[in-house]
Specification:
Elements: E1 18-25, E2 32-43, E3 59-65, E4 74-83, E5 108-117, E6 120-129, H1 143-148, E7 153-154, E8 160-167, H2 174-177, H3 191-195, E9 211-220, E10 231-246, E11 252-264, H4 269-272, H5 279-284, H6 294-298, H7 301-309, H8 315-322, H9 328-336, E12 358-361, H10 393-401
Antiparallel strand pairs: 1-2, 2-9, 3-4, 3-10, 4-5, 5-6, 7-8, 8-9, 10-11, 10-12
Helix pairs in contact: 7-8
Length: 454
Amino acid sequence: MSSHREAPEISKDPVADSTDVYAFVSPDKPDTVTLIANYVPLQGPAGGPNFFEFGDDVLYEIHIDTQGHAEPDISYQFRFQTQLPDPDTFLYNTAPITSLTSPAWNRRQTYSVTRIDSSGCHELGNGLICPPCNIGPLSTPQYAAALAEPAVHRLSDGSTVFAGQRAEGFYVDLGSIFDLLDLRPFQNLQVYAKALGFKAAPGVNTPKFLNVHSIALQVPISRVTAKGRPVIGVWTTASRQRVRVDDDSGCHFRSGPFTQVSRLGNPLVNEVIIPLGKKDFWNTRHPSHDKQFAAYFAHPEVAALLPALYPGVFPHLAALDAANTPRADIEAILLTGIPQGIIAGFTNFTGPVQADLLRLNTSIQPAVKPSIFGLLGGDAAGFPNGRRVFDDVVSIELRALAGVTVPLVDKSFTPDAAAGLLTDGLTPADLGTPYLDVFPYLGVPYDGYDHPAA
């Protein structure tokens, strides 16, 4: 969660596992859009001697739909290559890594960026270097200034790119939520927790002090939108070649066409909307085929679980579920975007094609006083209008599933009082390191030496 280990097969393949996607108008450069795709979930910083990296055999892509048909009109491809200067040492580094060209750094990655659009394929950069993982104060001194900042590259079309390790910016109480949807601030009302005498408590940020690998791209808005269509749909994929051959020496070779093994648009969709038996299948499908999954959005399982696990707390939601009323609000938010006329002055509608896309209206400028609750907090620049790194998507989606957004499509429905308060008890203050105010926005990765769990 957001999509960390969200399906049985991809949980075995972390380098291809997309964890989070972000798309937002850059607050410090409002004529640009920032797109971020994170992979390799739940990294322990002290994970030597084989530290985390992107997969050389994985095709990573960020896709953009500019026409509202849930097909990629623009795709950015990222391919990685690992170099090992000295294969006869077990060490990642043999002395302090003081720059991106340091000879002491023994396992480094470079990458290429290619843009595919209606005019063809365009290589925007090649041989771009990733920063090393943040090992510790002896191995990676002055990490931010000497290693991370020089790894922000300018591409040939003027866009900016970064690929490398970052601090996990997604905050969520995984331990509590997956323990029978126990929300610690409300566990005194949860049927099983109440029976054990649990009292309301603050949330615990499970990914705190963990890292991810991030691909971040900052592009002029004019380069990712169609004329007269400010709304874009964004998603990321990871693909592998179909055939793998292993030889007797332990080496393996891949060949054949690439096939999609992971994808992500809106947060939490495969995690809590798609049922267990279809999660792997979902990861292989293109968004344009998502109509086949629409029933799970119309009748989300969490909306039925909340009244059962919190008896008496959600009577209106229980009645809605008992009537088998399709959740047109959830379908709109996650599958089509919100049409004009539903919320005054706002739309991120891409069209009638039902597809899991992170939809961003690029004409909406960054908020002067952002709300972590995004659109539910009166901030139209936040989720579900795109997604910023600090948006509290767990609380937003919990509240929507609990019925807060039903009046958008049914004015006669009154949400339960508790629906607008739901949260796992976390905010950005529960991060171990702050976000950055500038690209790539996610914080400096944690190092293994100073890590609290080391």
